[in-house]
Each structure stands twice: as C-alpha cells, then as structure tokens.
Design goal:
Chain lengths: 113, 116
C-alpha cells in the first residue's frame, strides 16, 4: 500500500523568509502524481503545486517550488518570500493508477510577522 | 477553472435522523467523485469513490449502510449519513475529477456535520 509521510507536524517561518516542508512517500507504481495542498482555516483544499513522476524537472508555481527526488521518494515544498497568507495546513498527497489520493498527516505552517 | 460546489456548508441534526450532503461539479462533467472525512487537526481520510451510474466503492472500515453514496449524474454525487449519531460529527469533503483530465482533482468547500 502507498504511504505518504510528513515528518514535521509544525513549522514556523518569518515573513519574507524561505521555508521547506518535507514529504516522503512509498510506492511500487512507476506512473504517479504528487501534490501539495494548502488548507487554510476555511478548510478549503487548495492545490499549491503538482508534479508528474515521469518529469525530471521540478515543478514551480511563483513562490512555490518542489524538490522531487524520485529515487529517494522525496517530494519537498519550498516556499520563498513567505507571506502571512501562506499560514495554513499543508498536505502532501500521492495519486496513482486508481486515481485515489493518499494524504500525509499534514504540516501546520505558521508565518510570523 | 473547474469548480465543485458542496452543500450545505454546515448542518446540525438530531441523533437518529439522516442528513444528505450534495457535491456538484458546476462547469465540468465528473466521471469520478471522492468523499473524505476529516477529524479536527487530522488529515483527510478517503471514505469512498463514486463513479457515475455505478455503485460506490467504499474504503475498508467505512460502513456502506451508514454512509450512502449516490452518483446519479456526471455532475452530482450525494452522501447521506443515515441514522446519524454524535460520533458521525465531522467535516466531510468531496472532490471530483473532470472527464478526461486525470489527476485534476477539485475539492468542494466541505460540510461540517454536528449531530446532537
């Protein structure tokens, strides 16, 4: 069975600084997707970034980028120039052939002014 | 972009009654919809996968007779919590994948269910 592990229950960062959230996963499938979702206090799940496993190039979306290490099964999220609005729960997720998403337990990010 | 509407956002019901939660894809056809449950300060737990016109596939440990899922059309899936009890109180979230767009998950805004 696929598993997703987020080893940092909580992280904090100063406004305008950079923070990296960790995620590792385990799968025997070769074709899959990885995601980072943000869940603010409203609890709406918001897609932050998506990575296709077959792509070697790391995905980027403005201030958000990932470090995808397929062999190590690692998928970390880097947030640059952190803003107060970035404060939220962040979930790493894996999606494979069944299209079901497997979520990590989440990391609560606090942004300090 | 793809939008999923989930209704109601909050519901309070009495023990023993049933409550229905709707999940609609507003601007796309969803061949597959997913229902999740989220306890406070925890991650999303997949309850079931529903495909239009067929029976839902429930995850292990989820009572299919308590959580009835109907995916009657390509734009609507419903979750009915039957004979609700206080332990069913939780946050329920749906998500949908547009037809032909693999892994293009869009989430509803969730429903907070409180059973009193």
């Amino acid at each position: 069975a696929q598993t997703v592990t987020q080893s940092q229950p909580e992280m904090s960062v100063q406004e305008a600084e950079t923070v990296t959230l960790s995620c590792t996963y385990d799968t025997s499938e070769s074709d899959y997707y990885l995601f980072w979702y943000k869940q603010p206090p409203s609890r709406q799940m918001i897609l932050v970034i998506r990575q296709e496993a077959y792509k070697q190039q790391n995905a980027t979306e403005n201030r958000f980028s990932v470090n995808f290490q397929k062999a190590a099964k690692s998928f970390s999220l880097k947030i640059s120039d952190s803003q107060l609005g970035d404060a939220a729960m962040y979930f790493c997720a894996w999606g494979g052939g069944s299209e079901k998403l497997v979520f990590g337990k989440g990391t609560k990010l606090t942004v300090n002014p | 972009g793809a939008v999923v509407s989930q209704h109601p956002s909050r519901v309070i019901c009495k023990s023993g009654t049933s409550v229905k939660i709707e999940c609609r894809s507003l601007d796309f056809q969803a061949t597959t919809m997913f229902w999740y449950r989220q306890f406070p300060k925890q991650s999303l737990m997949l309850m079931a996968t529903s495909n239009e016109g067929s029976k839902a596939t429930y995850e292990q440990g989820v009572e299919k007779d308590k959580f009835l899922i109907n995916h009657a059309s390509l734009t609507l899936s419903t979750l009915t919590v039957t004979s609700a009890h206080p332990e069913d109180s939780s946050f329920y979230i749906c998500s949908a994948i547009p037809r032909g767009r693999h892994y293009g998950y869009t989430f509803g805004s969730g429903t907070r269910l409180t059973v009193v």
